[in-house]
Amino acid sequence: MTARRPLSIGITCYPSVGGSGVLASTLGQDLARRGHEVHFISYERPFRMTDSLPRVHFHPVVINDYGLFKYPDYTLPLSVKMAEVSRECRLDVLHVHYAVPHATAAILARSMLQGERQPRVVTTLHGTDTTLLGRDTGYAPAIRHALMKSDAVTAVSGWLRDETHRLLDLKRPIDVIYNFFAPRKPRRSRREVRSELGLKDEAMVLHLSNLRPVKRVDLLLDAVARVRPRESFKLVILAGADFTPFVDHVRRLGIEDRVIVRERVTDIEDYLQAADLGLFSSETESFCLSILEAMWFGCPSVSTEVGGIPEVMTSGKDGLLVPPGDAAALARGVETLLQDTTLRARLGRSAQRRARSHFSADEIVPQYEALYRRVCADR
Ligand code: GMT
To answer: Ligand 1 pocket: which of 27, 126, 130 to mutate (most atoms <8 Å of CB)?
Structure first.
């Protein structure tokens, strides 16, 4: 049998804190470990991208500021850089994460290479690129166009695939490839982390997110304020953004002594292994990578039942799901898992098994490789 030629793959994502960027950086690094050449194209190095891995390259997009423009333009310099990298590095595939504006830029880059070697364009939808922007008439026709012109489109859950078909009236297949997690080894022990947080016998309830409005941090705090006994836990928030806008809410609820915030943490594994349960209150979520990250460390979550979350975990089996927008139900879920440590351990074990069997790099990355081979087959 002949060995398959390694591919040259361009990846574009948002480099800032957020699930789509995390997924794209982890995927790129894993593809490089599997022998492919990977070229990240973005305005900054993705924040979870490890420096100096073999076969991983970074091509910055430089954006000049022109006085004539009221709003700086990113799409055009991005597409020019994509075309340049495609030509110089003979890209087989340009894989863009989050449709806006990355898919449009990729389609434009590909048409700039008319008559030359054109990369295949793969677009991965992550969530609000269709569930929010797909409802916006100022974006929807451009998103639909870029998706129709992509050589393959993937979504991170069946729910997101169906929502995309419905919202954009998209008549083309979308492959579902779930997210995965490839944790790094924690740097500190569980005891060291708990001592840094000043935790004694309390349970550690963990929330990780970028605090965007869809995460409903207000609801999360309302839920936490209802949990009894109040001394039995502390909520640790790993905030991917400035927490200041929520400080007043914490004060009004009188839960300053129950909430610990850490901003822009990069060593999330340290905290994940120390957590007893996760808490998520989103109003929509195509997948919720943070729930998976917690599951990986045997930590079950209480979450609102929205979007693709039921595809990640099953209520009563590897976590607890409650109706969206219901602070009392979230609080009851937390109380159940605080009081019933046997149930908590059982859900945690099952969550960990499911994370490792369904959402590991070994399970998911070959699905992307197979997709790349499929779209390149007719080259
Ligand atoms: O769509 C967004 O709001 C941004 C995006 C991100 O970059 O964090 O989040 C989405 O992608 C993640 C990775 O696939 C998913 O885990 C999140 O559920 C999803 N967010 C939403 O659907 C709100």
So the answer is: 126
- Taking only the tens place, the pLDDT of each residue in 132-143 is 999 999 999 999
Distance 215 CA to ligand 1 centre (A): 10
Please name the amino acid found at residue 369: E
Query: Residues 28, 11: contact at Cβ < 8 Å?
Result: yes
pLDDT, tens digit, for every residue of 66-79?
A: 999 999 999 999 99
Q: Is the pTM of this model over 0.90?
A: yes
Taking the C-alpha atoms of residue 102 and residue 82, their distance in angstroms, rounded to an integer, is 10
Instruction: Name the 3-class secondary structure at 124.
Output: strand
Tokens (6 digits) for 263: 């901003």
Q: 240 CB less than 6 Å from ligand 1?
A: no
Cα 98 to averaged position of ligand 1 atoms, centre (Å): 9
The CATH number of 190-358, from 3.40.640.10, 3.40.50.2000, 3.40.1110.10, 3.10.105.10, is 3.40.50.2000
| Tokens found for residue 310 | 């039921």
